[in-house]
Write a structure and sequence with these properties.
It is a single chain. By secondary structure, the chain is α/β, with parallel strands linked by helices. 36% of the residues lie in helices and 15% in strands. It is built from 10 helices and 14 strands. Strand 1 and strand 2 form a beta hairpin. Helix 1 packs across helix 3, helix 3 packs antiparallel against helix 4 and helix 5 runs parallel beside helix 6. It is elongated and about 90 Å long. The protein starts with a helix and ends with a strand.
Amino acid sequence: MATFVGFAVLVTALIHLYLWKRLVRDTTRPGRWRKAGGVAALLLALLVPATMVGTRNGSYWLAWPGYLWLALMFYLLVLLLVLEVPVAVAKLVLRRRERAATGAVGEPAPVPAGGGGRADTTTTGHVAEPAATGPSATSPVALAEPPAAPVAVGSAEPPAGEDGGPRAAGPRDGRDPAGDRPDHDPSRRLLLARGAAIFAGLTAAGVTGYGVRTAMGPPRLDRVRIPLAKLPRSMDGLRIATVSDIHLGPLRGRAHTERIVAMINRLDADLVAVVGDLVDGSVAELGAAAEPLRDLRSRYGSFFVTGNHEYYSGVEEWVREVDRLGLRVLQNERQEIRARGGVLDLAGVNDVTAAGTGLAAPADYAAALGDRDPSRPVVLLAHQPVAAREAAKFGVDLQLSGHTHGGQMVPFNQLVKLQQPVVSGLGEVDGTKVYVTNGAGFWGPPVRVGAPPQVTLVELRAP
């Protein structure tokens, strides 16, 4: 745990350092605004771990500012990283224009043809004298003034005159050729950095606002039909209302539970399956918020399996509390469901997080699935989709899971794929069908983008 916390703090610090560079250092000149931006970046960096620790210790007032900043930070990071490529291209174009402008200034000016006997100056400052036509020939050259001192090409300043004052302006009207570099103007690079920062900031704020509205809104009802080869014809159409990741906690309370219960009851389902991550807090803190679960209605019962967050919140107390509310907690065990003249095995395993915690028995697939009639269809409730890799060894027909939140915040769903075989919807793992619901709540930021909250009605179909 200490290693994980240390790694998380390091990553948070590096992200805020990057954001400070792109949003503050690159967009401001030295002065009080840059200092103020640096202080703000430091405070926001400290807010993230303070929120993680504080909300677990009852400081719920940190939840809204801390978790909202976490979401905004995530989208700022993603957008600024995406903008690195076009910004780098724009800087390259400016640099090439600068070099082209510098090269054009450094070339010697063309020398007009000497006609009419006038003096011809070259880039070295020597005066070419025309040949005389005779000893008595008169020429404008004889009336010319002595040549000026040589002028070195590329000199930063024109040479002084005889009285110590500056010479008259040259062919470029006194402008400094070496300094005449409009494409090297720092204000252009500053404008580019500010444009990228404004675009990233406005887009991140818009996406975060949309995500808050989605996450705090009512869950979406999805219906899915899943054929099971072993399901008796008499049980065709058996319906299981499935919900996960309700996440009662600092930002979700009793009203959230009441809305979900009312939604499930309207479905008139045969079974109700709550597949983990009900809470983010103790029974003392959230018992009242979970109380509406006692009103769940179904024909053949309501069932619950633990998720990883139960192990952070006092799993043994919550198992007793959920059982008191009328849900059957399946802890590495199964229940025969006799309905419509057929039989289905409904099994449940503890979350894989239980291993090594000492709080409850780890997931035991043999205890839940072994020594059963293989002719019966079996549906397994397991919080994490990854459990299917073990469940498939016992011939599980269908596994119902949650945990992933469907990724919760695109493009985070791409990272979830590195750990879980199915992120959202129906998939298959080693011959076992796996359905993953997005969950009805959220963890951390009250933001959902690309993965709306969800309650699913799973309808089992016979072949």
